[in-house]
Amino acid sequence: MDEPPINNSTPKAAINQPLTKTFSWYLKTIDWAFSHFIALIFKGIFFLTLIAISLASIVLEFRYIFEYNAGLADLSFVEIIFFVVLLILLKRYWVYSKQTSVHWWDLLTAPLLWYAKFNIFTFLSLFLILLKLESDTHLSNLLFTQWQHYEQIVFFIGTLISLYIAVPSRSLIIKLTRQNHRTN
């Protein structure tokens, strides 16, 4: 005759679930965790590959710039312009990045990831062009000889574009408190 009061705060889904977990629940949990582990491994490998491509390309470009070991005498006009613009973009990147809440590791790797993507795009484009020109050996030889002259400029442009677009989003800017506004 005394019925217990109905507790309306318990969700309906919780009422229908058994108190003990079934074997299939454990299998699904293990399967979910394993798939995410495998995805994490592949993301890590992909990340490390992009960083390695970017760093290798940067090292090769600097070796190419200073190929005669003559210090500043090695620099051409284009290379001097590149370094000036690079310093300006690095300053821009630093100013914009220090206003955000982005972790230092992400700030360090973002331009490298963009540069690696640019390198991959450039090499794939060149490869596809060479496949298209495979039958015309004169045109492909001309492309190879001309590419040697423009390769450095293409990668300089890629470096500058990568640094320019790697700036963190404006939505990540740290909001200033009223106290910071008063002191400024």
Number of helices: 6
Uncertain residue ranges: none
Number of strands: 0
Summing up helix and strand content along with how strands pair, one would put the structural category as mainly alpha
Strand content: under 5%
Q: What is the count of structural domains?
A: 1
The succession of helices and strands, N to C, reads: HHHHHH
Q: Quick one: biggest sheet?
A: none
Rounded average pLDDT: 84
Distance between the termini: 73 Å
Shape: flat
Radius of gyration: 28 Å
Give the proportion of residues in helices.
over 70%
Explain this structure to me?
It contains 6 helices and no strands. With 184 residues, the protein is an all-alpha fold. The chain starts with 11 loop residues before the first helix and ends with a helix. It has one domain (21-174). The protein has helices at 12-16, 23-65, 77-97, 104-132, 137-165, 178-183. The protein is flat, with a radius of gyration of 28 Å. Helix 2 (23-65) crosses helix 4 (104-132) and helix 3 packs parallel to helix 5 (137-165).
